Every structure is written in C-alpha cells, then in structure tokens.
C-alpha cells in the first residue's frame, strides 16, 4: 500500500515568550497558520518489520534523527502493527528555517500511518503522541490557524485569515534556537498584542493583521545574523504591508493582499538573494 501525504509549512503571525519553566521549556504564546509550501511524504508499507527513511536533500538526516522516522517509531512501538514502512521525503520546505519543516513531516507521518495501519486514533491523540517529538508537532497534526500556548501544545483554533499571499525569504544564515533563547531578556521586551492579532483575524482585517505581526525573537536573531534584519528592511523598502520573522528564523515573510503585490516584493528581493518563495496562505485545517 502506498500513500502520499502533504506536509505544509507554518508561519508565526505572532510569537511571544512568557516565562522559563522549571522543566527547562519556555511558555510561549503564538498565533500560527499554515502556508501552501509543503513537503510530500511518500509512505509505502513493508512486509518486513523495518522503518526506512530517504530524503531528497543530502543535509537532512535519513536515519533515526529524522522526525518523520521518530513519528513512525512511536506508533509502531505503541500499537500492535504488523510490518514496517518506507518513508520518502520530497522536501520543498527550507530546512532550519523557522517554518517547522521537520515537525510537519512528523505530523504527516502520524496522520498517514494512522490511516494505513488502521489505528483509529483521533487527531487529539496523534497530537499528544506528536508532542513527544517536538513542541510544534501538535499544531502541524491539525494545520489551520491557532493560538498556541504552553510549550506550543495548548491549541485554540481560530478562524482563518482572509485569503492572501506570503512572500518567504530564507537567507542561508544558520541560527540556533538555543542561542536565541539565551539572548532573550524576558523582563525587557516588547510583547506582541496577541489579542489584537486574534481580533484582526476574526474580523478578517488584513491591514490590522499586518500591523500586529510581531516576534520577540527578532532582536536576538538580528544580532546573531544581521543579514536577516537587512532582508526585513528591504521588504519594507519594497513596499511590504506587513513583515516579520517566523519562529526563531532566519526566514522573514511579508503578507501581500494580491499576487501582483507579492511578486513586486519577490522581484525586488530576487536581485539580492536566493531562497525567495511566493505562496498562498492556507489557514484552514487539514481535511
Ligand atoms: P521549527 O520552526 O519547528 O523551529 P525549523 O523549521 O527551524 O523548525 P527544521 O527544518 O524542522 O527546523 O530542522 C531542524 C533540524 O531538524 C535540522 O537540523 C534537521 O537536520 C533536523 N530534521 C530532522 N528531521 C527533519 C525533517 N524531516 N525535515 C527537516 N529537518 C529535519
């Protein structure tokens, strides 16, 4: 049996860090939504009791360190499954980009194998299992638009933003999430107005969504990788309506109301860098 599952990337419309917890994680508050830039996960059931992973990008691990492998492993260890699976990851989402590439692959494997192995688990149950792999996996199990709290697993789904375009710019800079957390000064930061963002989305107010894009990790990432700040400044110069960094970066994105506005930004930025994409905002939950 063979199946192909789409694994879309997420962007953060807001990202706030509230406090450090005793267990070492941080409590966050972020508004996340899905975009139409997706990996494709090919799942083929095997008679042998084995989990194989192959990826079309050399620098992504094709072994037990792959989050897609870990998703299959968790299901296989926990439920009476006969045989194994071969996972081929056709990667389109930039890696280590703040777009939850690995988490969405893991979530797609959970959804796909739940079906193929007839496990009958609910999305809530899959999200609980996914949390063992990473904080963004529960959101990726559902997709859509949500406010994520706690480590990122406490999800409140809200309506989708109005249809729009997203220009994603991923510079080559490598930024470590750990380094960024170390540089955050939780007592002195400008917090996003999460409530205003939720309100703007609920009322489909594109302008207010743009005005409330904010990410507390930007200053730390900009310090570690100044070229990320430069990209944000360029997008603003080219007339972007709203621009912010996604996750811990280094991807910066702008929202655009129309395709032509999106391509104006794309064409401006293309002269300076590779790794620019124009995609649609999806915003709705997986079928
Ligand atoms: P997040 O937004 O959740 O912080 P990210 O987009 O910044 O994630 P990923 O693309 O998920 O980062 O990659 C982070 C690390 O995970 C990389 O070092 C990569 O080698 C590893 N990794 C494991 N599995 C995968 C996968 N299926 N796809 C991409 N990277 C993976």
TrEMBL record:
Gene3D superfamilies: 3.30.230.10, GHMP kinase, C-terminal domain (3.30.70.890)
Gene Ontology MF term list: 4-(cytidine 5'-diphospho)-2-C-methyl-D-erythritol kinase activity; ATP binding
Record pathway: Isoprenoid biosynthesis; isopentenyl diphosphate biosynthesis via DXP pathway; isopentenyl diphosphate from 1-deoxy-D-xylulose 5-phosphate: step 3/6
Residues binding ATP: 94-104
InterPro entries, A to Z: GHMP_kinase_C_dom, GHMP_kinase_C_sf, GHMP_kinase_N_dom, IspE, Ribosomal_Su5_D2-typ_SF, Ribsml_uS5_D2-typ_fold_subgr
Catalytic activity: 4-CDP-2-C-methyl-D-erythritol + ATP = 4-CDP-2-C-methyl-D-erythritol 2-phosphate + ADP + H(+)
GO biological process, one term: isopentenyl diphosphate biosynthetic process, methylerythritol 4-phosphate pathway
Keywords in alphabetical order: ATP-binding, Isoprene biosynthesis, Kinase, Nucleotide-binding, Transferase
Top-rank taxon, per record: Bacteria
Enzyme active site: 10, 136
EC number: 2.7.1.148
Domain GHMP kinase C-terminal residue range list: 197-272
EC main group: transferase
Sequence ranges assigned to domain GHMP kinase N-terminal in this UniProt record: 66-144
A Pfam family hit: GHMP_kinases_N
Membership in a protein family: Belongs to the GHMP kinase family. IspE subfamily.
Function: Catalyzes the phosphorylation of the position 2 hydroxy group of 4-diphosphocytidyl-2C-methyl-D-erythritol.
Protein name: 4-diphosphocytidyl-2-C-methyl-D-erythritol kinase
């Amino acid at each position: 049996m063979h199946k192909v599952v789409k694994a879309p990337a997420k962007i953060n419309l807001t990202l706030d860090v509230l406090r450090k917890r005793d267990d070492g994680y941080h409590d966050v508050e972020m508004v996340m939504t899905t975009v139409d830039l997706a990996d494709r996960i090919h799942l083929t059931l095997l008679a042998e009791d084995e989990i194989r992973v192959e990826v079309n990008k050399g620098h992504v691990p094709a072994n037990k360190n792959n989050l897609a492998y870990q998703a299959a492993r968790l299901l296989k260890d926990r439920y009476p499954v006969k045989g194994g699976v071969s996972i081929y990851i056709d990667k389109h989402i930039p890696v280590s980009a703040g777009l939850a590439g690995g988490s969405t692959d893991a979530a797609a494997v959970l959804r796909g194998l739940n079906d193929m192995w007839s496990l009958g688990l609910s999305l809530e149950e899959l999200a609980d299992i996914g949390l063992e792999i990473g904080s963004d996996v529960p959101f990726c199990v559902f997709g859509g638009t949500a406010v994520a709290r706690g480590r990122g697993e406490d999800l409140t789904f809200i309506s989708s933003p109005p249809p729009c375009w997203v220009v994603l710019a991923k510079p080559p800079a490598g930024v470590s999430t750990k380094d960024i957390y170390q540089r955050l000064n939780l007592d002195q930061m400008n917090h996003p107005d999460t409530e205003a963002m939720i309100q703007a989305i609920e009322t489909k107010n594109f302008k207010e969504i743009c005005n409330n894009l904010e990410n507390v990790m930007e200053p730390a990432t900009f310090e570690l990788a100044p070229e990320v700040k430069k990209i944000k400044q360029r997008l603003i110069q080219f007339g972007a309506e709203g621009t912010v960094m996604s996750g811990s970066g280094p991807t910066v994105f702008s929202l655009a109301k129309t395709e032509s506005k999106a391509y104006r930004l794309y064409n401006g930025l293309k002269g300076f860098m590779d790794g620019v994409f124009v995609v649609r905002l999806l915003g709705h939950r997986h079928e």
